[in-house]
Design goal:
By secondary structure, the chain is an all-alpha fold. The chain has nine helices and no strands. It binds fe (ii) ion (FE2). The site of fe (ii) ion has 7 residues, from helix 2.
């Protein structure tokens, strides 16, 4: 809903599908699995799952007419999510890195201008539209990952991120505008821009902070390390 890729909370019209991901030989962090931007799509298939490569994800965002600002935001979310997922894998937790990366790249594809005219997307919030689009593009395993990233989703157990992949995409989206940003600054910014939803953001922030602790612990990282990796721009100054 926002041109810079940030999120407000809106009611959902559909229930999410919950799926888990398990580490398998040849999957996350294992030799022989390419996850870079130029890796061929076939190398991203894990245990029969069809996953788009980062290059294909970018092509899809362009095909669906996403503005440059949202594509830039999506690329940063992807970088952060990929870094976290790789570290989670190396730290010993089960996670599907290609699924996390592709979900991060496509989480905002539902902000496509086509949503205004495509009857199949009418009445959906942008996360629901993202989930519908990845399904009809042939990537149904990405639907739960893109579906659970809106700021208020953590407040409802039926919409809150469940798997590490979903939590990483949700968290990475919250610490990325077009630059890396802290949760406090991000939620302050959301409140300034969407005062109507500020009570929801204020309720969500402590839960997202808990998610941050969980994700960083699983990755064996501190917030300072994440900030050093991606830089820091305070929006409150
Ligand atoms: Fe986003």
């Amino acid at each position: 809903m926002n041109k810079d890729g940030s999120d407000a909370s809106r009611p959902r019209s559909a229930k999410a599908t919950r799926t888990g991901a398990a580490a398998k030989p040849g999957a996350v962090g294992q030799p022989g699995v390419a996850t870079g931007p130029d890796a061929p799509a076939g190398r991203h298939a894990v245990a029969g799952r069809r996953m788009p490569s980062p290059k294909k994800c970018r092509a899809l965002l362009e095909q669906y007419g996403l503005p440059a600002g949202i594509i830039d935001h999506s690329e940063l979310v992807t970088e952060i999510a990929g870094f976290l997922a790789q570290n989670v894998a190396e730290h010993g937790s089960a996670i599907d890195v290609p699924r996390t990366v592709a979900g991060a790249f496509l989480h905002d594809i539902g902000k496509t201008p086509k949503a205004e005219t495509d009857s199949r997307l009418q009445g959906l919030n942008h996360a629901e539209a993202s989930a519908r689009i990845v399904v009809w593009e042939g990537y149904p395993d990405l639907a739960p990952v893109v579906l659970r990233h809106m700021a208020g989703d953590v407040l409802d157990p039926s919409t809150a991120p469940v798997t590490l992949e979903e939590k990483i995409v949700h968290y990475a989206d919250k610490v990325a505008t077009r630059t890396f940003i802290s949760l406090d600054d991000r939620f302050s910014d959301l409140c300034r821009r969407y005062p109507k939803y500020c009570p929801i953001f204020e309720q969500a922030l402590p839960l997202v902070k808990k998610m941050e602790e969980e994700v960083l612990a699983a990755a064996g990282l501190s917030f300072q390390q994440l900030r050093q990796r991606f830089g820091y721009a305070s929006r409150s100054t």
